[in-house]
Specification:
Shape: globular
Number of strands: 17
CATH class of the largest domain: Alpha Beta
Distance between the termini: 14 Å
CATH superfamily of the largest domain: Dihydrodipicolinate Reductase, domain 2
Strand content: 15-25%
Number of helices: 15
Largest sheet: 11 strands, mixed
Number of domains: 2
Structural class: alpha/beta
């Protein structure tokens, strides 16, 4: 696999006080794992040069969150906003008054000044817009799943690889999160001992049903409740955690078993509001995944269980819980400890021993982290600008007749910030859609290795 959703925000103090997941620590000590603050020499240079003129297509709830984050980024100039529903355009125009406001995405693509687009429309509308954007020469950030069918996701990914002078980034935002990159080598290093299993969840009480005085509009905005086009909870939410576990374990699964039911929102819907999945990986390793729209308790989390320790990840924080017979790694003696009921949790952070002496100041810095989507969009903008500049330099020196040489030049000369590419997005989409298929059918679905390849 290449190396390169947003859930409910969680107040850590409430978690420490009331979460049953914290009961792990009544037996085991919890070591908190948090990415250290970067030293001056490691801090990326501030963006230089012209800002990237970007168009945002899709202004629903998540599209508006993307707009908020784009407006925070120094490298972004929001040059256009687009939605096919006029009230959505007017609502967002108040935040970006200088941007072109349109109901037709082709106006965005025809604007030569706009070099990058962010596609946040309903999943089943991605293909038409993304393919047109790539043909128009735009860099593309496409939310995940890439599409509502594997065939359309494959078509998008292949088109992205074909247009290799443009950046294509899939919206697997956790792939750009510095905290996740800090945890990745830790989990893969064997520090947890022999991996036994993983568990992940996403719980949020919300109906997914939206209302509108216009029946046609109401049907349109409730696409997630339409079995013909909805990827379900596994696709719209679970895709991020399914991808994270596969990324951390460095394996793609071999099968998935799914279960789903309408447990609470019995309003005639056919799409389950509560799902579970058992995802099988090589060597007998399994992920137990659950999601529900019926209850918010415990929100979202991932837990990795090894023979020496377990790691709990919740939001921007993570803790390690060691077994009593686990070997001493050394650094955890000096690490920051967090109290879980009657036990203690150790902070997984390289400079945790320094933070211990800084008290509340360190705690405030830890809790004020930017959301993963901020880093994902930052990577998209920076990478888009760098690739545009490199293509310009190459063609001015060597012309525009050797695409392979250009591809080699971009691979060698452009230092990209970490982000999920087209292949990452395709593979995650395949897994999420197949998991949803298993939920809908109530039967296991085999996942052959070739399913995750584009050839």
């Amino acid at each position: 696999m290449s190396e390169t959703k947003h859930g409910m925000e969680w107040n850590r103090r409430e978690f420490l006080r009331g979460s049953s997941l914290a009961a792990l620590a009544t037996v085991l000590g919890g070591v908190r794992l948090v990415k250290p603050a970067a030293r001056a020499a490691e801090t990326p240079a501030p963006p230089s040069g012209e800002r990237v003129k970007v168009g945002l297509i899709g202004l629903g709830q998540w599209g508006r969150e993307l707009l908020d984050q784009l407006l925070r980024l120094p490298a972004a100039e929001v040059a256009a906003i687009c939605d096919n529903y006029p009230p959505m355009v007017r609502r967002s125009q108040r935040k970006a008054p200088d941007a072109l406001a349109t109901e037709n995405y082709r106006e965005v693509l025809e604007n030569k000044d706009i070099t990058a687009v962010v596609v946040a429309t309903p999943t089943h509308q991605h293909k038409e817009i993304v393919l047109a954007a790539l043909e128009a020469g735009k860099h593309v950030y496409c939310e995940v799943p890439l599409a509502h069918t594997v065939d359309e996701a494959r078509e998008i990914a292949r088109a992205a690889l074909k247009h290799n002078r443009q950046v294509f980034q899939s919206g697997l935002q956790l792939r750009s999160d510095p905290q996740r990159h800090f945890l990745l080598p830790f989990i893969r290093s064997g520090a947890l001992g022999r991996m036994a299993m993983a568990r992940a969840q996403w719980n949020k009480k919300t109906s997914w049903r939206l209302t509108s005085p216009n029946p046609e509009r109401e049907a349109e905005i409730n696409w997630r409740l339409s079995p013909e086009i909805s990827p379900g909870l596994m696709g719209e939410v679970g895709i991020h955690q399914l991808d994270q576990v596969s990324w951390f374990l460095n394996h793609w699964p071999t099968a998935v078993h799914g279960f789903g039911t309408v447990a609470f929102w019995r309003d005639g819907r056919k799409v389950p509001d509560t799902v579970q999945a058992v995802v099988e990986y090589p060597d007998g390793l399994r992920l137990l995944y659950s999601a529900t729209l019926a209850n918010s308790y415990e929100a979202d989390a991932e837990i990795y269980y090894g023979s020496d320790a377990a790691v709990l990840i919740r939001g921007s924080s993570a803790w390690m819980f060691k077994e009593a017979d686990a070997p001493l790694l050394g650094w955890e003696v000096y690490a920051q400890k967090d109290a879980f009921y009657q036990a203690t949790g150790i902070s997984l952070r390289a400079d945790a021993s320094k933070l211990k002496t800084r008290g509340a100041q360190a705690e405030a810095q830890t809790e004020a982290a930017d959301p993963p989507v901020y880093f994902a969009l930052e990577a998209f903008l920076r990478n888009s600008r760098e690739v545009t500049s490199a293509v310009r330099d190459f063609t001015s020196l060597y012309g525009d007749t050797d695409p392979r040489a250009l591809a080699d030049y971009l691979a060698q000369e452009v230092r990209r910030l970490p982000a999920a590419d087209a292949l990452d997005g395709y593979r995650a989409t395949v897994l999420a859609l197949k998991a949803n298929e298993a939920v809908v059918r109530g039967q296991p679905v085999a996942l052959a290795p070739e399913m995750f390849e584009l050839s």
